[in-house]
């Protein structure tokens, strides 16, 4: 008996490449030092933007970048970040440092151009105004002689930019205003109305969705946003709903060390990461009631590991190191997103450089690609592929992980996978979370396949801060069954030619 069945001839939804998106906030050393060093820096840059960072993000095919927050978005007034004379403000949310606004709208859009990616801008609902948000959209995207288009030209940019993804506030249930869902839902309708499509720029508006398992928030949002009482469809005003879920150790209060952790803490973290599957399923079930044809996308615009801050660092800067454990959190989470392709349109890892589960770390001129960067690199081929669902058999091996509080044990599967097909090729991701080696077997039905190549990511210990990525020859097919021999705690991608 194999572990799972993959039907090669069944149609599936497309895995949006935007699931592999990233998030950069004015927090700690993410923007300043991480992405932006200023034009006078000896570090090679374009208008102050680090070219090594741009190159490394292009290598993983970054599909979109969310900015300027996070919590910072609801404290950010975009006019502070344009023109010659920019005021300083206090970033009281993150480290209580002075923000000089030298990285603003034009710098972000230059970064987007250098990356060849799509911008996802989060507007300010918490402390801003409807007019302020409406004008930002106009400033960015309007082509004629409107007041905001003129202001943009005065600041050196003639042509409008294309900005599709637009967040209407961030964590409005918390740092974004501590609102009740009823209040935010009405504001979302109001702000959504005044964030207009200019010319051929069509916005994809993303309403602030729930914190983790706040199903009541999703229910209220979908009921309010989904019934506009004007004969309009929900998708006329909103195209996306966000969800935030972070992975930590035993609990939010006991996040645990990034690098010094016990096997038990590894299991807590993996159970927490795997919870993403349950969260997406449950929020999606509520969304289905109001949007049965699944036109509103779930946008998991903050996810990733969140450990105790690096000893000696500013706790408000959210600095952490990474190990193989972070890489496995990423591989399992990306599988979950792929497998929910029918609802998850976009996701954004927190946060691109130097903060939380960053893909890159900078130290002066030095740039390091983290274990997580490698997982994104290996996953690239899934973007825009057609999902081939992996059907696990009922006796899939699990480990029971107990939690503090009333939640029942998590029955954490030890094997995780996702598969996509494109241009006659299938890409299969498989993660082995077990502390022992194992062979995963897949019954390939409805076609024939031959192994064309593969790569393996692992390390000699879970706590290793460096992972190895090597060619993988542990996959073979016999009698229509694909066998993948995986070392302990490892992640493999296998390419198959389909006939
Ligand atoms: O990513 C760090 C913070 O986590 C974000 O600013 C906020 O939205 C979330 O609480």
Describe the structure.
- This protein is α/β, with parallel strands linked by helices and 499 residues long.
- The protein has helices spanning 51-59, 105-115, 130-141, 147-154, 181-194, 215-226, 234-237, 263-290, 324-339, 371-379, and strands spanning 4-7, 21-23, 45-46, 49-50, 64-67, 89-91, 97-99, 118-123, 165-168, 204-207, 240-247, 297-305, 344-350, 360-363, 366-369, 386-387, 390-392, 398-401, 410-413, 415-422, 425-432, 438-445, 449-458, 468-471, 475-478, 481-486, 490-498.
- Strands 2-5-8-9-10-11-12-13 form an eight-stranded parallel β-barrel, surrounded by four helices.
- The chain is globular, with a radius of gyration of 22 Å.
- The model has no long low-confidence stretch (mean pLDDT 95).
- Alpha-L-arabinofuranose binds at residues 25, 69-71, 170-171, 302, 350-351, 356.
- Alpha-L-arabinofuranose binds next to loops.
Features:
499 residues, alpha/beta, TIM Barrel, Immunoglobulin-like, 8-stranded parallel beta barrel, 6-stranded antiparallel beta sheet, 27 strands, 25% helix, binds alpha-L-arabinofuranose
Question: What is the percentage of strand-forming residues?
Answer: 25-35%
CATH top level class name of the largest domain: Alpha Beta
**Which fold does the CATH topology of the largest domain refer to?**
TIM Barrel
Give the domain tally.
2
Widest β-sheet, arrangement of strands? 2-5-8-9-10-11-12-13
Topology at a glance:
Blueprint: E1 4-7, E2 21-23, E3 45-46, E4 49-50, H1 51-59, E5 64-67, E6 89-91, E7 97-99, H2 105-115, E8 118-123, H3 130-141, H4 147-154, E9 165-168, H5 181-194, E10 204-207, H6 215-226, H7 234-237, E11 240-247, H8 263-290, E12 297-305, H9 324-339, E13 344-350, E14 360-363, E15 366-369, H10 371-379, E16 386-387, E17 390-392, E18 398-401, E19 410-413, E20 415-422, E21 425-432, E22 438-445, E23 449-458, E24 468-471, E25 475-478, E26 481-486, E27 490-498
Parallel strand pairs: 1-22, 2-5, 2-13, 5-8, 8-9, 9-10, 10-11, 11-12, 12-13
Antiparallel strand pairs: 1-17, 3-4, 6-7, 14-15, 16-20, 18-19, 20-21, 21-27, 22-26, 23-24, 23-27, 25-26
């Amino acid at each position: 008996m194999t572990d799972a069945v993959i039907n090669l001839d069944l149609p599936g939804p497309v895995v949006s490449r935007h699931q592999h998106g990233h998030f950069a906030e004015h927090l700690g050393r993410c923007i300043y030092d991480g992405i932006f060093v200023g034009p006078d820096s000896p570090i090679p840059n374009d208008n102050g933007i680090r070219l090594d960072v741009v190159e490394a993000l292009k290598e993983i095919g970054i599909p979109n970048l969310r900015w300027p927050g996070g919590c910072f978005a609801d404290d950010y007034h975009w006019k502070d970040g344009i023109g010659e004379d920019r005021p300083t403000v206090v970033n009281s949310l993150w480290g209580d440092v002075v923000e000089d606004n030298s990285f603003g709208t034009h710098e972000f859009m230059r970064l987007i151009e250098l990356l060849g990616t799509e911008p996802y801008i989060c507007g300010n609902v918490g402390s801003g105004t409807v007019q302020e948000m409406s004008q930002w959209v106009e400033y960015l995207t309007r082509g004629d002689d409107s007041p905001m288009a003129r202001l943009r030209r005065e600041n050196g940019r003639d042509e409008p930019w294309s900005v599709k993804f637009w967040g209407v506030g961030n964590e409005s249930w918390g740092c974004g205003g501590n609102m009740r869902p009823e209040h935010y839902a009405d504001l979302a309708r109001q702000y959504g109305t005044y964030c207009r499509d200019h010319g051929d720029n069509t916005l994809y508006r993303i309403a602030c969705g729930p914190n983790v398992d706040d199903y009541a928030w999703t229910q209220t949002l979908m009921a309010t946003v989904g019934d506009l009482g004007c004969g309009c469809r929900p998708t006329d005003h909103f195209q996306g709903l966000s969800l935030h879920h972070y992975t930590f150790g035993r609990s939010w209060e006991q996040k645990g060390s990034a690098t010094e952790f016990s096997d038990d803490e590894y299991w807590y973290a993996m159970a927490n990461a795997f919870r993403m599957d349950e969260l997406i399923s449950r929020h999606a079930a509520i969304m289905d009631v109001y949007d049965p044809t699944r036109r509103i996308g779930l946008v998991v615009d903050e996810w990733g590991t969140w450990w105790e801050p690096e000893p000696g660092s500013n706790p408000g800067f959210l600095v952490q190191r990474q190990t193989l454990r972070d890489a496995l959190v990423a591989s399992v989470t990306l599988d979950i997103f792929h497998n929910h392709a029918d609802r998850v349109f976009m996701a954004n890892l927190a946060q691109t450089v130097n903060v939380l589960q960053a893909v890159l770390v900078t130290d002066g001129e030095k740039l390091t690609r983290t274990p997580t960067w490698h997982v994104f690199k290996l996953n690239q081929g899934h973007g825009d592929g057609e999902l081939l669902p992996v059907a696990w058999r009922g006796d899939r091996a699990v480990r029971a992980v107990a939690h503090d509080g009333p939640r029942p044990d998590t029955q954490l599967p030890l094997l995780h996978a996702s598969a996509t097909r494109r241009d006659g090729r299938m890409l299969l991701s498989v993660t082995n979370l077990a502390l022992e080696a194992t062979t995963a077997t897949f019954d390939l039905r409805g076609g024939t396949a031959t192994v064309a190549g593969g790569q393996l990511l692992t390390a000699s210990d879970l706590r290793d801060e460096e992972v190895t990525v090597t060619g993988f020859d542990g996959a073979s097919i016999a009698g229509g069954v694909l066998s993948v021999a995986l070392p302990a705690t490892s992640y493999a991608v296998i390419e198959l030619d389909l006939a």
